[in-house]
Model the fold of this input.
Amino acid sequence: QKEVEQDPGPLSVPEGAIVSLNCTYSNSAFQYFMWYRQYSRKGPELLMYTYSSGNKEDGRFTAQVDKSSKYISLFIRDSQPSDSATYLCASISGSARQLTFGSGTQLTVLP
Amino acid sequence: DGGITQSPKYLFRKEGQNVTLSCEQNLNHDAMYWYRQDPGQGLRLIYYSQIVNDFQKGDIAEGYSVSREKKESFPLTVTSAQKNPTAFYLCASSMRTDTQYFGPGTRLTVL
Done:
C-alpha cells in the first residue's frame, strides 16, 4: 500500500464549477501537507501548504486536512480553464527527510 | 531572477551511454533533490543532498549517480546500468525539507 493514495482521474468539470481533489494517507506521523500544481511538461509548483489539521484558504483555493480520518482535500472555487493541470498532494513527518507524493489527479476545466 | 534551472530540456540517449542532467539554483537553498516522474505516477525520489559534499540515496537510486561539489549545483548522471531511463526528471531545492521548489524538468528519451 502506498503511503499517500490519490485518485488519478482524469476529472473534467465545466468552467465555474467547484472542484474537490482528495488524497488519503496511512502514516500517522505526517504533519505537513502540500498541494502542488503541475502543468503539462512543466515542473510542479507549490500551491498550498498546511500544518496539521484544519483549513487554509488562498483566493479560490482551500486546502483541508482531517488527521482523524487521514484525509487531505483541495477545493477550487469558480474553476477556470487555466486551472487545467495535474494536482499532486504530498506529505511529510516532522523528522523525515523526504516528501511522499500522491500519484496526481489530472483536472480539465472545460470552457 | 531567482530560481532553479535544468538543462537540457530534452535529452536523447543511446543504449549503453551515460548522460548527465544539470541542475542549478540561486535560491541559496541548502537541500537539493532529484525525482523521476513516469506517466500516471507520482514523483519518485532518486537522490537528495542536505549539504555540500554529502548526499543520500532515495527510493530508486540504482543506475544513477550524483555529486554535490557546490551549493548551487546538483548534477545527475544516468548510467548505462539504468535499464529503463526514459522519463521526466525533476530537480528541486529547499531551505526546509517540506517546502520544495522545482525546476522545469528534463525529458530523457532512450533511442
